[in-house]
Amino acid sequence: MEPFIGQVQIFGFNFAPRNWASCDGQLLSIHAYSAVFALLGTTFGGNGSTTFGLPDLRGRSAVHYGSGPGLSPVSWGEKSGRESVILITSNLPSHSHDGTLKLGAGPGLLATGDGAYLAANSAGETIFTSVAPAAGQLAANQLAVSNTGSNQSFDIRNPYLGILHAIALVGIFPSRT
C-alpha cells in the first residue's frame, strides 16, 4: 500500500527505506520536497524559505495533539517534558512530624547520652532528674527535624523501546475531505 505523504510509521529495522526519512529533526529542502513542506510547514523547524524540519522523535513519546477532559492541551508540534527532574525541599508540601520522647531516671549531667537517655551539654542544664516522672513531654520548639536530601536528579521516563520512526516523503497527497 502506498503511504500518505507525511505519514509517520514505525519500522522494525534500523534504516529509513527509500522515499522515507528518519524522524530525527533533520532539515530538508523545500524545493526538493515541496509536497511534504505543504503539509508540515515550519512546525518542526527550518527557515520557511529554503528549508523545513522533520519531526524529531528521538527520545520522545508521541501524543495526539488537542485537549480532553482532565488533560492539559497539547498544540500540534509542541515539545514538552523532561527525562529527569531534581526534587528539592521547596517542591515538598509543608508538613510536621509528631513523636513521643520517653523520659526515664538517670544521672542528670552525662557528657554523652547513656543508653536511651538524653545528655546535658554542661553543668546547670539538668534536663531530667533521678526520679522517673510518671509521664513527660519535650517542650515545644526543643526538638528540630531538619531538611535533608542531596538534590540529585532522578529518572521519570516511562519504560521504552528504541525503534525507528520514519516519515513518508513520497506517496499520496492526503485529502482533507
UniProtKB/TrEMBL annotation:
Sequence ranges assigned to domain Phage tail collar in this UniProt record: 6-61
Coiled-coil regions, chain positions: none
Gene3D superfamilies reported in the protein's UniProt record: Phage tail collar domain (3.90.1340.10)
InterPro entries (alphabetical): Phage_tail_collar_dom, Phage_tail_collar_dom_sf
Highest taxon in the source lineage: Bacteria
Database matches in Pfam families: Collar
Record-given protein name: Phage tail protein
